[in-house]
Amino acid sequence: MDDKLKVTRIDGDPFSPESERACINQAAGAVVRGSASLQLKLDNGKVRLFKDKSNCERNPDTCEIYSLYDYFPKGRLFLVHDQGYESDAWFLVSQRDGRKQRIVAPPGYSPSKRWLASVKAIDGPSDANNGFDILPADMNVNGPSIHYRPTEYENWEFVRWDSDERLLLNVTLHEDGSRAMLTHPAEVTLVNGKWILNKWAPR
Question: 143 in helix, strand or coil?
Fold first, then answer.
């Protein structure tokens, strides 16, 4: 995870049992780690269960090992990591109702914590972890969000929030369809209640 987007991780291996326990403690009793499952207690009294399929050597296509990677108390959101055999996925899960939203990487807050932004670039098989997301910090379904996944080769890099309404990025892509690579500024701005991407933004 980019340090500029880091939220509540502890030092050391971010996937270690100690790191997960720190997140579970922060969730104040809302998370139970089983021997092969992750249980999230919701406000409505229900439980959202993520059950491991850990026989990864014999059945790699079905391998899934879940862990709590982070917790966002302001928006009451769990960040769940799904580790596959040679892939991974990230999900924000609402503590209020259990709704799940896939994102490309661990997110970070905008300056006033109105939004969460997630940015990821990867070469090779992407497993859909390539591009960026911006969504309301409480996952409000009525709030504006954007989930951008490139259809051609593009590597996206988080730069900084310029304000709560403007996220600055860099994007690396092929120049004019050639094999030459070009990196240039881009931005996502909130205009009339909608996030708009500009791939050729001025700085």
Answer: coil
Strands (E), 42-175: 47-51, 65-72, 77-83, 88-94, 100-103, 108-109, 115-120, 131-136, 146-148, 154-163, 166-174
Distance CA 49, CA 39 (A): 5
> Residue 111 corresponds to which amino acid?
P
Q: Which residues of 66-100 are buried (b: 16+ CB within 10 A; e: fewer)?
A: bbbbbbbeebbbbbbbbbbeeeebbbbbbbeebee
Residues 6+ apart with CB under 8 A from 35: none
* pTM: predicted TM-score of the whole model, two decimal places: 0.86
172 forms bridges with which residues in the sheet? 155, 183
Q: Which residue's structure tokens are 């997630």?
A: 118
* Bridge partners for 168 per DSSP: 160, 187
For 133-174, write each residue's pLDDT tens digit.
Answer: 999 999 999 999 999 999 888 899 999 999 999 999 999 987
Q: In this structure, are residues 106 and 70 in contact, taking their beta carbons and an 8 Å threshold?
A: yes
d(CA 48, CA 100): 10
Token match 């996030």: residue?
195
What are the pLDDT digits (tens) for 172-187? 987 776 778 889 999 9
